[in-house]
Amino acid sequence: MLRKSIIIAHKSIDYTAAFICLILFLICLYAMIDAYMVYEGANDSSILKYKVSEGNTEILRELSDDAAAWLTVDNTKIDYPVMQGKNNREYLNKNPYGEFSLSGSIYLDSRNDKNFGDEYSMIYGHHMEYGAMFGSLDEYADEGFFRSHRTGTLTVINGTEYKITFFASCKAPANEAVIFDPPESTNEALLAYLNQYALICYPQEVTAGSKIIALSTCQSAETMERMIVFGTLTPK
In which domain, by residue range, is 107 found? Predict the structure, then answer.
């Protein structure tokens, strides 16, 4: 009787261990699938068919009424449409096609002018691995990388095409009003902040009439720290 009870107890332990292993396997499998889906969303090359060519923005209008521009940063993976939602949460987890996506979209601050008429415009994007979305912005903390990746293009939905020249990078908390309160912030206030806190800064390249664009991404899910790269917009 005792031996039979011991055998039953051992079997019960074996079943419990097997069940726990199965649950752990399913959790790991889900995590792998989830990570793959996020990666695929961030690297969806099908969106490139809407890339503006020779200033023709009609194809971008076909994508969505929320499309504000096309952003390209030379020699990086940043080559995406810029969306603008009714608020700054709308495109956090929505792709440019309007579908749910953990990688979200690159998007313009909802308070900014869609045609980039403001003195200062802010664009946000998720920090993804392998340089996808705004994952490559971290590299701008290195002066060597900064110097060799200083240009880009912004083609606005109204047809205006701008050359981007990056002049500064910094890290700041997401509640820093000087940076994250467009279009209330001014060039003067931004430059004063950057002169004090920037990782890299060439303030002499910004004039009184310059339009400034900022690209921002999070550092991690656990902190409010953001990496921001600043550039001037010059009409082509």
Answer: 45-235
Strand partners of residue 106 = 82
110 occurs within a structural domain? yes
Structural domain includes residue 112: yes
| Residue 25 domain-assigned (yes or no) | no
Q: What is the pLDDT of residues 49-87, one digit of tens each?
A: 999 887 789 999 999 999 999 999 999 999 999 999 999
15, 116, 139, 158, 232 from 162: Cα distances, Å: 65, 10, 23, 12, 9
CA dihedral 158, 136, 194, 187 (to 10 degrees): 0
Contacts 24+ apart (CB under 8 A), 62-68: 63/96, 63/97, 64/96, 64/97, 64/98, 66/91, 67/96, 67/157, 68/108, 68/114, 68/115, 68/116, 68/156, 68/157
Per residue in 186-218, pLDDT tens? 899 999 999 999 999 998 888 878 999 999 999
Report if residue 22 sits inside a domain. no
Would you call 21 exposed, middle or buried from its count of C-beta atoms within 10 A (0-12, 13-18, 19+)? exposed
**What is the domain count for the chain?**
1
- Domain CATH code at residue 59: 2.40.260.10
Distance CA(63)–CA(54), nearest Å, equals 17
